[in-house]
Specification:
Length: 423
């Protein structure tokens, strides 16, 4: 087994870990370990909320998650000799849960008032599902009659931005927030056209953990540090289910040492992670090998991460596939809008799964956790983009093909809140 260079304690608060963690992007956050090119190491990671979600049957914790805290990242890891313009190469050798220290996963529908989700206008209230982890497979008491192998992967991994790149992030995201504040409906594919959910998250010193920066340095850096919520040029919160075992990722290097950080381990996820806290979230570990390609950004014309997927399963063969088009559910025509099209495919799939006895919330979570395949299938046939969402049949313990309709059953419900607004 590779040497564990970053260890976490899932029983301890995030600001009191054996190795410092951080929850913002900033070039000045010091590296916690240095490795040489070619080294193989193990990195342990907290769950993305830092232990805010527990194994119970109430969704109040999801409703009340402090999103200023997230995500908790292990690192930064310095790779000796890495310089701006290089490519940092990461091979994922192994990945999994922390076993005896972490024995469950969780999925949440976030409240519209606290983060929202892809379909927050249809599912505005918080809900939760707990998943039992059985080796490489999982099942849930909250979403019965499914059992499947997950595509385990890190939801978030990336290098540190330069100061110039950080400033560019903040400027462009602030411009989007200003536009939304002036006219919420001007962002045409915003799910509610209202103030909530927000369109971006500006720097916020509240609950910022800045690694091993001193108090004064941490306070100053937190005022401009980028939130970890979206994917960006450094990688970040990409939530790509195919970043699984055997994957090789090439990251642009923007600062000396590269400063690679990672976290948000997912036991499984569907394309899109549509409920927002939509994967099967867990604390876990990554065994990785790190290397460098000197001057790789210019040599290969790469200024965003690229990757070569591994070939570990699950290997599903039979699917039920749903199509969606650039027309909203109330009949409004959009021009080649894949966001609207994928929403329609998801909504059609949810209505279909409800015919088998699942609630809308259960179906929504299934699309977010099962390794569904999302595709932008047509982008040129005006005025409609065509998006598809393919559900693997083998994850269910009954037939979900159209010939199986009529086999509806009482399948319970997910965990809900006792007060959606937390009054």
């Amino acid at each position: 087994m590779p040497e564990t260079v970053i260890e976490v304690d899932v029983e301890a608060p995030p600001d009191d870990q054996p190795t410092s963690v951080h929850n913002r992007w900033h070039p000045d956050i010091p590296s916690v370990v240095t490795v040489d090119p070619g080294d193989r190491v193990r990195v342990e990671c907290l769950d993305w909320t830092g232990g805010q979600i527990t194994d119970d049957d109430n969704a109040n914790e999801v409703r009340d998650v402090d999103l200023n805290q997230v995500h908790y990242l292990s690192g930064p890891i310095e790779v000796a000799g890495a310089e701006p313009g290089d490519l940092l190469v990461m091979d994922i050798l192994d990945i999994g849960a922390l076993n005896e220290r972490w024995e469950y996963g969780f999925t949440g529908i976030f409240s519209q008032q606290n983060g929202g989700g892809f379909l927050t206008d249809h599912f505005p209230d918080a809900a939760k599902a707990i998943w039992d982890l059985h080796g490489t497979k999982t099942s849930s008491r909250h979403i019965p009659d499914v059992r499947f192998e997950g595509m385990i992967h890190p939801g978030l991994v990336g290098t540190a931005p330069s100061k110039e790149l950080l400033e560019a992030w903040n400027d462009r995201e602030q411009a989007l927030m200003d536009q939304h504040a002036e006219d919420p409906e001007s962002i045409h594919n915003h799910p509610t056209g209202e103030e909530n959910p927000p369109v971006a998250n500006p720097p916020d010193t509240d609950a910022a953990i800045m690694g091993e920066l001193t108090d004064d340095e941490a306070e100053a850096a937190a005022q401009e540090a980028a939130r970890t919520v979206p994917p960006r040029e450094n990688g970040g919160n990409c939530d790509i289910k195919d970043l699984s075992l055997g994957t090789r990722v090439y990251f642009p290097v923007f600062v000396e040492g590269g400063k690679l950080s990672m976290g948000d381990i997912h036991f499984s996820q569907g394309d899109g992670e549509i409920t927002f806290c939509g994967a099967i979230e867990m604390a876990g570990y990554l065994d990785i090998e790190l290397d460098l390609i000197k001057d790789g950004m210019d040599t290969h014309g790469i200024d965003h991460p690229i990757f070569e997927p591994g070939h570990r399963g699950p290997n599903f063969e039979d699917y039920v596939v749903f199509e969606g088009y650039s027309v909203t559910e109330d009949g409004e025509q959009h021009y080649i809008d894949p966001h609207v099209a994928y929403r329609r495919a998801a909504l059609e799939a949810i209505e279909y799964l409800k015919k088998f006895g699942y609630t809308g919330e259960q179906a929504y979570m299934l699309l977010s956790t099962v390794p569904v395949e999302g595709r932008q299938s047509g982008m040129v046939d005006i005025p409609n983009a065509c998006s598809t969402l393919a559900i693997p049949k083998d994850v269910f313990e009954f037939d979900i093909s159209p010939t199986g309709l009529g086999e509806s059953a009482d399948r319970g419900q997910v965990a809900i809140t006792d007060d959606p607004l937390g009054n």
